[in-house]
From TrEMBL:
GO cellular component, one term: plasma membrane
Domain of life: Bacteria
Subcellular location: Cell membrane
InterPro entries with a match to the protein in the record: Apolipo_AcylTrfase (IPR004563), C-N_Hydrolase (IPR003010), C-N_Hydrolase_sf (IPR036526), LNT_N (IPR045378)
Protein purpose: Catalyzes the phospholipid dependent N-acylation of the N-terminal cysteine of apolipoprotein, the last step in lipoprotein maturation.
GO molecular function, one term: N-acyltransferase activity
Sequence ranges assigned to domain CN hydrolase in this UniProt record: 248-496
EC number: 2.3.1.269
Species of provenance: Roseovarius litoreus
Entry protein name: Apolipoprotein N-acyltransferase
Xref: PROSITE patterns: CN_HYDROLASE
Pathway annotation: Protein modification; lipoprotein biosynthesis (N-acyl transfer)
Length: 535
């Protein structure tokens, strides 16, 4: 006869021939017995542990282990309210560790803004943690089973991607970007990686509680997905006649970038890199000149309307190659964060205005709405902050094909990439990651760029002011790069695109739909009188 062992943290059924690790089960029971305040502190600490799977640490086993412990504590929550508080505490700890780079913009002028840094970090983390709180509460209301927990948290991460302009940074699934699981994003996007991470955590805890066949099968399946991952998106090697792209990285520190004594220095540095001879690394022959040259976001300190002399100098340095660069432009009182392509004669051949702006960083939400009532201090149309461009578009790069331009923050949104009116041949991202500091932010931004390439099966040209500038192939591999914090340039052949992926055709709808179905089934099962307690 099997023996039933119950604790306030988990309910396990196991045969007498095998007992659970009583120390681990006892740990969960001990956590459930803590005072509420101490339990919340513990969840916050475990959440921070789970955040160590994000770049640059990349300790994905700690993400799985941390989530497994959080699932164990969650199963002991007697009500959906208690579960919600646990989720909020865990999410706050997770985001405070993962998003610690958010303090960096406040340290550019530390004397004026440094005092705001801890409040900004806690405020953002506590706000994003509300999505985790909703997920934990919803899962508890649906019965508290493993499937309900995975489905509810997956939906909360989907909501974080789309609601309130979205902020999908540091999804739990991003911990898998440096593993073969990354390639499954070509099937289900970042949400599939999140589902794998959450399922692995729940199954791991169930196995700890005893030999649960379903949990063992789940772990075996997840391990199989790891083994098969690399075969999904084989690396596409550039052909001998692949276009050559020059990446330009001036390394302009944010506190000096707009300083009158330094702007000319950074401009001349980029001119020198543009006119430099081939670096001999990416060029197919020592004499090969680049077919395209790319400068970063806001690369020149003048507005588009006054950039004629700068464009002439850039065109002369490029020696006939087209140049893509970022700058600002105006239209009446409105300001735009823009990207232009200069043709061989230095004329603007393509223009793109950033459309997915950073709330509070590039504009104040509802500023134009309040302007109707005479409050114009926050209105973009009155010149306060950037105005949004018309939306995603593709631009022609001559013989290189079509590119989908992305500016900085837009690279973290899978929906912005899928919004392209036509399938491009490449993704083209320019950014100024100097705002993110030198520790975690730039590396997390780069990781998400790799994820976008795998989701779409497209190479990406990524050029950052301070780094990391990189050429990324359609399998998410970095084929050439310039390290963070270095000024330099690099010639890199453009990898070819792969056929459209499943995710490119379907987006997040299948993952969201499946999560909704699983959650609905959990609710129905929880309402059934015959519901099993051993889930």
């Amino acid at each position: 006869m099997p023996i039933r062992a119950e604790s306030s943290a988990c309910v396990c059924v196991f045969p007498t021939t095998r007992m659970p690790d009583t120390r681990l089960v006892g740990l969960a029971a001990w956590a459930a017995g803590l005072r509420p305040r101490n339990r919340l502190i513990l969840c916050a600490l475990i959440g921070a542990l789970a955040g160590l799977g994000q770049a640059p640490w990349g300790l994905w086993p700690l993400t799985v282990a941390g989530l497994a412990m959080l699932f164990a504590i969650f199963t002991a929550a007697p009500t959906w309210r208690r579960a919600g508080f646990l989720g909020w505490a865990a999410g706050t700890g997770y985001f405070m560790l993962s998003l610690n780079w958010i303090v960096e913009p406040f340290l550019v002028d530390v004397a004026r803004h440094g005092w705001m840094a801890p409040f900004a970090l806690f405020g953002l983390s506590a706000g994003l943690a509300l999505f985790w709180a909703a997920g934990f509460a919803l899962a508890r209301a649906a019965g508290g089973g493993a499937l309900a927990w995975v489905a509810a948290l997956l939906l909360s991460e989907a909501a974080r991607t789309y609601l309130f302009t979205g902020f999908p940074w540091a999804q739990t699934g991003h911990a898998l970007i440096d593993t073969p699981w990354l390639h499954w994003a070509s099937w289900g996007g970042s949400l599939m990686l999140t589902a794998i991470t959450l399922a692995a955590a729940a199954a791991l805890w169930r196995v700890v509680c005893g030999p649960r066949p379903a949990a063992l099968v789940a772990l075996a399946l997840i391990a199989a997905l790891h083994g098969a991952g690399a075969a999904l998106t084989p690396a596409a090697q550039p052909t001998p006649d692949a276009p050559l792209v020059r990446l330009i990285q001036p390394n302009a520190a944010q506190h000096l970038k707009w300083h009158p004594d330094h702007t000319r220095t950074f401009f001349e540095r980029q001119i020198a890199f543009t006119s430099a001879p081939p670096d001999g690394q990416g060029a197919p022959t020592p004499a090969a000149r680049p077919d395209l040259i790319v400068w970063p976001e806001t690369a020149i300190p003048v507005l588009l309307e006054r950039a004629g002399p700068a464009f002439d100098a850039i065109s002369a340095a490029a020696d006939g190659a087209p140049v893509v660069l970022g700058l600002q432009r105006t239209d009446g009182l409105r300001y735009f964060n823009s990207l232009v392509m200069l043709d061989a004669s230095g004329q603007v051949a393509a223009l793109y205005d950033k459309h997915h702006l950073v709330p509070f960083g590039e504009y104040i939400p509802f500023g134009d709405f309040f302007a109707r009532f005479g409050i114009t201090a926050f209105s973009a149309q009155a010149g306060n902050g950037y105005s949004s461009g018309p939306g995603a578009q593709v631009i022609g790069l001559g013989d290189l094909g079509l590119a989908l331009p992305l500016i900085c923050y837009e690279g973290v949104f899978p929906q912005d990439v899928r919004a392209a009116p036509a399938r491009p041949d490449m993704l083209l991202l320019i950014t100024n990651d100097a705002w993110f500091g030198t520790r975690s932010g730039p590396y997390q931004h780069l990781a998400q760029a790799r994820l976008r390439s795998v989701e779409q099966g497209l190479p990406m040209i990524r050029v950052a002011n301070t780094g990391v500038s990189a050429m990324i192939d359609a399998a998410g591999r970095v084929t050439a790069s310039i390290p963070l914090g270095q000024a330099g340039w690099r010639d890199a052949p453009l990898p070819p695109p792969l056929p459209p992926t499943i995710y490119a055709r379907t987006g997040d709808s299948p993952a969201i739909g499946l999560a909704l179905v699983l959650l609905a089934l959990s609710f129905l099962r929880n309402r059934s009188p015959a519901r099993s307690d051993s889930d």
